[in-house]
Prior knowledge:
A: alpha+beta; Heat Shock Protein 90; five-stranded mixed β-sheet; 62% helix; 12% strand; B: 222 residues; alpha/beta; Rossmann fold; Arc Repressor Mutant, subunit A
Amino acid sequence: MSRTSSLRLRLVLLTTAAVAVVWLLTAVFTWRSALHEIEELLNHPPATASHMQKERAELAGEIARHLLMPTLIALPGLALVLVVAVGFSLRPLRRLGDDIAARAPDRLTPIDSTDTPREIVPLIERLNDLFAGIGRALENERRFTADASHELRTPLAALKAQAQVALAATDSAERLHALNQILVGCDRATHLLTQLLTLARLDAGTGQAMTELALRPLAEAALADAAGDAIARGCELVLADGDARVRGDAALLQSMLRNLVDNALRHGSATQIEIGIVRQGKEAILSIRDDGKGIPATEFNAVRQRFRRGAGADSHGSGLGLSIVGRIAELHGGRMEMAPAPAGRGLVLHLRLPALADDTA
Amino acid sequence: MRILLVEDDALLGDALQAGLKQAGHAVDWTRDGVSAETALATEEYAAVVLDLGLPRKDGLDVLRNLRARKRALPVLILTARDTVEDRIRGLDAGADDYLVKPFDLGELNARLRALLRRAGGRPAPVLAASGITLDPASRIVEYRGKPVELSSKEYALLQALMQQPGRALSRAQLEQHLYAWGDEIGSNTVEVYIHHLRRKLDAEAIRTLRGIGYVIARDSVT
């Protein structure tokens, strides 16, 4: 016999058996009393036709009564048997309920589905999928918190050490330098915290307000925001012709663009950053190209990971920029790709997002 | 003492370089594992302050390679990871000591002094020879019981000579102690500092061994 039984089969078998027993008992009882009555009738045949008539009616009535009586007596018994049978059949469901009720919130081990009725196996499988999903989310959260606390240690160490250098400084130039560095450190820690919060919100994946929008105005805004920084670094910002419409969250896409431009400005030592938006088939491709020092192809995967900065990065970044960009692309059903710039110097990042039908053309 | 600082974080590295300089060390600062190995292969250092999370080559690998070459150089690691396993891994890879970020600059300097003391085979924290006492913790120098005011380069030079009394150090070796990369080295600065020291202490305190270098005589053990 297979180990997985069927809830339906158990119920049907048990009820059929109970009805069959009652029915058999009735049949036996009726058979016996009918036999007795018929014998009585044969032994003492009625003398007259009117007697015969009476005896026959009595006999029929007797048989009907005997047919009815055991059934009436047995019905409550049958109900009792059915209650027990149904209860017995549904025991696996109750056991499952108890098992889940008794779980601590963090015990997410799968439920054992061997030895359970076939009908509730899909339920258990769904539950196990859910447990696994929650387990992964919890694990992500745990790792994120651990990473975040470690990442905050370095800026804190820098702040503390700079403050102590300032306190111990003997000449004012040294003290001034250390104090200025403390301010830079505070800005950096603030930036790191902002990025951490952004990423935590993105991980939760809630609160997106998806609307249909054009990418070009967002790119214009992001470049305008970065203009001051770009001038200070002697870098030219270019927005090439072209546009595409996507379904997305304007605030998130803006944040993605700002991170991209920031990233190119900070880490590339580029002299030109160009954003291009094209529609290719069903995809809207947003590309950002710089002519900076680029990233070796061997590090493409590494720099996408959280808290990983490229070698030689000026380390003022949080190490989260590209993770944020990648995550936002993911939330929009798209993806991020990296490639060396065609000019042989610098880096191109492509964001491929599902495009909407172009109704502006 | 000349210290190699390996730290990829610009702000923390800047602070540590300044802090170690304030403590009288010459500091070379490298920002990744590969440059750290190059520096270790080409220069002589009294100790290394090594961050573990480094680009290009992990700090633990730098440390393992250093120990694989049988170098006994004192190494103090800086780490953001504070679990017991992380500390054990660091110490087992060959670190002499570790500090978890964020740390106190004073503690970093004290631990470095302890490492340098142990590396020099001296149990006593205060260096003493030829009537000179030098306390690396307070940086107070006394000659025959009287305090002597020294500039930081004079102090560093005296400390190098007091580290192993009786052993002569050449001009080149002394320069190694005094100057980090990028420091301007005058052609006869060591001679100038020796001259200052002799004036502040005693003409006989530091002896010149012609063609070899300079030495502070060891106190005779009775």
